[in-house]
């Protein structure tokens, strides 16, 4: 069966999992897996906008990942800087707007500047939005939103009746971005790992055994095809 391009999910989220296990399977160090995993990003981004996906959110680095050894964290940040340096021009020319979701104040100066450059360079692009969840945690995002609402209420900018499910979204990192339609998790694990907790309320979940460094365009198409064959009822009949 072919993908119906008129029914492609508007917003896809991907938990990029399995880099370390992929490297271990090849008797390599973990950084080798992270490097190969980074190579998959541009392939999946380009296939997504070819198919007409409007929003793609990639889980790159969680709040919990800060607990990893300092050398591994440093290498991951180096990879991110390298990705921006090498791929930013290509993404920009293809009309991709880059957003970063998360507490980027925790980033080192170099990574912070790279991220800001990517956001500023692509801010007016319209073809697709690429959200990079970086130093991100779903619970932390909801707590942050709650504090912002409490602040506005205290300052008289917000009344209790104004606080609704829709207005709550305005205080999330994903303001003005629709909820996730399809969540894909490569790597064989079947959990969401604190990713987009609010935005995933009615998403379709697809878990695949393929480790992220082996995840290719055909895997993305297979997931979208499965999504199109599901009946999304949103709690109805």
Automatic annotation (TrEMBL):
Xref: InterPro entries: UPP_synth-like, UPP_synth-like_CS, UPP_synth-like_sf
Annotated catalytic residues: 17, 65
Cofactor info, note text: Binds 2 magnesium ions per subunit.
Binding positions for Mg(2+) per the UniProt entry: 17, 204
First and last residue of the signal peptide: none
Xref: CDD domains: Cis_IPPS (cd00475)
NCBIfam families with a match to the protein in the record: PRK14830.1, uppS
HAMAP family: ISPT
Family recorded in the similarity comment: Belongs to the UPP synthase family.
Protein name: Isoprenyl transferase
Organism annotation: Peptoniphilus duerdenii ATCC BAA-1640
Gene this protein is translated from: uppS
